[in-house]
């Protein structure tokens, strides 16, 4: 197998892609062999339970090919149409697999139930079916352990789902062995009872897989323990004063996180951005997260008065000059703070202007009048701006 990633595969996912391909092809070979043995021996050996388990193994083949397809396309790099990558192809494949298992289980359940009502369908099975049942049990359990070890190493939800599918096969094979053994011991109806139980187990596993995949596709949050851990990472970031509106959702084997963090409202934009990037990198480093969107808030906007009704900088500066009736000279710099539904203004004036005591006294008096009655300004502060 080539050491270079196939065209379109994200190089970062190359090792994961190759390992998933390898384990899935092993599963394909095992399931081909077991499917043929179970269906052929089950048919000629008159074991409905073994045939049902053979059809179960056939559904495994379908799931293996779905995994191969999803692994190939889900490992592709992000593009303009899929900026977060293609990881949810795995989720969609898991949902399809779950639906197929439910349908298979229901059909087998219906068939076994109908045969139980027909006394002529209850026959003694051939002893060879017991040996094939035992071989299947060993093969499925071995396959489960191998696949689960790889799935855990790769942290692949889809491979874990396929591994647990093999474990369900091992469990159903155990039921089949018990049913065949009971049939051979003289309790001939037990083979059909085993077929009913296998059908039920197939449908149940399909429901669980489909439900989990659907939960991800509708953006269900991570579990409470994971959310609490992410919250701790964000809140412990230096400069973060509070956290609200933390939202999470699964994305394949990772997650997407959105959060609003509260910072000192008087710091610079660049410092606020630095705090946001620090918080983001901490979450990416410490958790299985694909991306984090950190929104910087100067105040808790879930409780504070919103400022969206206020005008922009240009209109506010024009209004400020009008309010001060020409008493305000050309400032060196003006900083606006949108807080609690109003605007706090910081005006930096030249040293020469600040040294004129009479003019400054008149300006401060006018500012006090404005702040008491103005709809926009909550405070206006004057600062001396000394050139370096």
Automatic annotation (TrEMBL):
It is found in: Membrane. It is a multi-pass membrane protein. The chain crosses the membrane at residues 23-44, 91-110, 130-148, 169-202. It comes from the Bacteria. GO terms for cellular component: membrane. InterPro entries: Cation_efflux (IPR002524), Cation_efflux_CTD (IPR027470), Cation_efflux_CTD_sf (IPR036837), Cation_efflux_TM (IPR058533), Cation_efflux_TMD_sf (IPR027469), CDF_Transporter (IPR050291). Residues 222-299 form the Cation efflux protein cytoplasmic domain. Pfam families: Cation_efflux, ZT_dimer. Keywords: Membrane, Transmembrane, Transmembrane helix, Transport. The keyword Transport applies. One of its GO terms (molecular function) is monoatomic cation transmembrane transporter activity. Its main location: membrane. Residues 25-218 form the Cation efflux protein transmembrane domain. Belongs to the cation diffusion facilitator (CDF) transporter (TC 2.A.4) family. This is Cation diffusion facilitator family transporter. It comes from Sulfurirhabdus autotrophica.
